[in-house]
């Protein structure tokens, strides 16, 4: 079954189940991006007004897996 989040994104999940696909994707992309910017020897990145260090991205990726 497909469910929609408030923004309209389709998230496949069982009824009343966790958004595992979302957390797994967010974790994977955060780790991938942190490895990429770490490889470039950049200390972090920014998105409009928010700044993210390599460590923050890696910690976020770990928190999604360990939750």
Radius of gyration based on Cα positions: 14 Å
How many angstroms separate the termini? 24 Å
* Count of beta strands: 4
Helix/strand-derived class? alpha+beta
**Integer tally of domains:** 1
In terms of quaternary structure, what is this? single chain
Report the helical percentage.
Answer: 40-55%
If strands are numbered along the chain, what order do they take across the biggest sheet? Answer: 1-2
**Which shape, going by the Cα principal axes?**
elongated
Number of separate helices? 2
Question: What does this 3D model show about the protein?
Answer:
The chain is an alpha+beta fold and 67 residues long. The chain has 2 helices and 4 strands. The chain has helices spanning 20-39, 54-66, and strands at residues 2-4, 10-12, 44-47, 50-53. It has a two-stranded antiparallel sheet with strand order 1-2. Strand 1 (2-4) and strand 2 (10-12) form a beta hairpin.
Which terms would index this structure?
two-stranded antiparallel sheet, 2 helices, 21% strand, 67 residues, alpha+beta, elongated
In short:
By secondary structure, this protein is of the alpha+beta class.
How is the topology of this model organized?
Layout: E1 2-4, E2 10-12, H1 20-39, E3 44-47, E4 50-53, H2 54-66
Antiparallel strand pairs: 1-2, 3-4
Helix pairs in contact: 1-2
């Amino acid at each position: 079954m497909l469910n929609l989040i408030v923004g309209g994104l389709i998230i496949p999940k069982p009824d009343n189940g966790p958004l595992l696909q979302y957390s797994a994707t967010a974790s994977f992309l955060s780790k991938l991006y942190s490895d990429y910017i770490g490889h470039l020897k950049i200390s972090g990145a920014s998105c409009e007004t928010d700044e993210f260090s390599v460590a923050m991205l890696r910690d976020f990726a770990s928190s999604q897996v360990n939750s």
